[in-house]
Amino acid sequence: QVQLVESGGGLVQPGGSLRLSCAASGGIFSIYAMGWYRQAPGNERELVAAITSGGSTNYADSVKGRFTISRDNAKNTVYLQMNSLKPEDTAVYYCKAERTLPHRYYWGQGTQVTVSS
Predict the structure, then answer these.
(1) What's the pLDDT score for residue 112?
(2) pLDDT in the model for residue 1
């Protein structure tokens, strides 16, 4: 069982930056693919960015060039650096850990990001 705890959310003005962190415990962090998802009110949860155990990354088109996902296996932590934030980035951001063979996935509790002036 893997536990995930997100932090770093908050209120920021348009154009500002935030860095989210997701600390993992209870498993071998390095073998998990990690992802950041978000869900705005009335919307489905969507993938924002993901990073494989090998360090390959992919991003939603809406955040390319503005957000960067990274991981520190020594600290069992994945990060999401968010720059040039827009009001439409407002959502609850969730961390997900996923492995194959056997297939398992785990979610964090989420952290609120609000972009508003």
Answers:
(1) 98
(2) 85
| Cβ partners under 8 Å of residue 90, min gap 6 | 40, 113, 114, 115, 116
* 49-77 pLDDT per residue, tens: 999 999 999 999 999 999 999 999 999 99
Q: Which amino acid is at 32?
A: Y
**Please, are residues 29 and 39 in contact by the beta-carbon 8 Å criterion?**
no
- Say how many CA atoms lie within 13 Å of 114 toward its Cβ: 6
Counting as low any pLDDT under 50, the low residues of the chain are none
Tokens matching residue 76: 């069992």
pLDDT at residue 30, rounded to an integer? 87
Q: What's the full length of the chain, in residues?
A: 117
Q: Tally DSSP H helices, then E strands, for the chain.
A: 0, 11
Structure tokens at 26: 């209870």
Which pair of structure tokens corresponds to residue 66? 């503005």
